[in-house]
Amino acid sequence: MPHCAAFGCNNNSNGNFFRFPKDKIRRKAWIHYCRRENFEPVTHRLCILHFSKDQYEVDPEKRAKLGYLNARARLRPTAIPDIIITLSPGEDLPIVPCVSKITTIKTKRVRGAYHKRRNAEVNTYIVCTLISINVVTIM
Q: What's the CA gap between 139 and 126, in Å, rounded?
């Protein structure tokens, strides 16, 4: 049974877990979000609780209203976790400084218009959006 890799999250019951992306820039943002030292995910995953509605291709609540209860939620190609979960009302997770410099990564030549647009969209996405994070309290 998978467990959520985010610091302070003990979710292991919900079936909606997402693997870390292979794209190096997004993967770095997800790792930063987990707030763990020397963390290199291999089989780790993040649960559905860490993503706001706008991070999904189709809103999970709308899909449930249409009767697709067993369908898996799908994240957008640019999705980055943006909801921090606190353990109790007065307890916050440690603050980790935002990554301010994005290094250029040498990759294979991208072919096709779709892949070029997707890579351009991901590369222009600012990793530091983690600063404007929603906070949810779980008791």
A: 32
Buried-state track 78-114, b at ≥16 Cβ within 10 A, e below 16: ebbbbbbbeeeeeeeeeeeeebeeeeeeeeeeeeeee
Burial of 18 (0-12, 13-18, 19+ CB in 10 A): buried
Listed as ranges, residues in the chain with pLDDT below 50 are 93, 95-103, 126-132
Residues linked to residue 19 through DSSP beta bridges, in sequence order: 45
Residue ranges of the domains in the chain? 17-137
Tokens at 45, concatenated: 């995953």
Cα 128 to chain center, whole Å?
13
pTM score of the predicted model: 0.57
Using alpha carbons only, how large is the chain's radius of gyration in Å? 16
Q: Are strands 134-137 and 83-86 parallel, antiparallel or unpaired?
A: parallel
Closest alpha carbon to 23 in 74, 80, 98: 80
Rounded Cα distance, 135 and 110, in Å: 37
DSSP category for residue 136: E
